[in-house]
Predict the structure.
Amino acid sequence: MKSRNKADDPSSVLKGKNISSKKASSNLKGKSPEKKQKKNLILEYIQVIAVAFALVFGFMRPFVVEAFKIPSASMEDTLLIGDRILVAKFMYGITVPYVRFHSFDLSPEFQSDLDRYKISQGIRQEFENNGIVLSQNAGVTIQDANSKWIIGDADRTYTIIKKGGKLKVYKSLHILDVNKPKIGDIFVFDPPEAAGKKQPFIKRIVAVSGDTVEIKDGNLYRNGSLVEGETYVKRYLTMPQSPQFMPPTVVPDGHVFAMGDNRDRSSDSRVWGFVPIENIKGQAFMIYWSWDKYAEGLDKIRISRIGRILK
């Protein structure tokens, strides 16, 4: 009688299969926790990135610090084209923009409502036909005020909203006061409507509410005194693009007078008027990067300007 080979034994084959299946299952069980760990780690990274984005774009950028690029030569030599700066959004307080404030019908009683508001940034009020005259691009705000501020140019196009219509009023909610804008600050702001631009501007504050400013032969006078210092009097006589004369003018309440350091290559308050404080986005405090597109190679990076504190 022939002895049976273990390889020919069906039971041994089955046992072998059982053993191999057990090994496979044990291997699967061993890999499963690792896969779960990797999956959890990926989810944690995603959560961290999501929180970081939320902090930067939901809190840091609107309320703390925002980056801007210098596009023009209006602030030379303080700021050069290609400089990238950081702006402290909280220096003058924290403002929540575009908060729904009020909505009311334009009725005969609307005139009495107007007495409680200040019309700002290109809106012009008129009491003819129980209506209000708005500039064509009036995406602006109406703020609480004890007195009225009327702004408007005769050569602009206006739209009359007559009685029976509805006006939705939006305002910026100022939730924290820190510092008031002061002379010498380099600041970023949304330009007044008269500037005809939408992107933020950067200039220097040369006069605040209550100051009398005057331009004589391209020189700035504040409260009757010549403002001295290179930051304010640098001029390029070969490029007289800016107004060289402006009669004595008082800066109204709630506004500042802004000028570029590179005076004759700057479109500023001499051209488009005062800057409402509500338009201010923040104070520039540092150059974090500087790029000269006209240079070659590594010279494109202005290393000496990186990290410079602005004054």
Observations:
- The chain has two domains: 64-93+177-305, 96-175.
- Residues 214 and 248 are 4 Å apart (CA to CA).
- The longest helix spans residues 10-64.
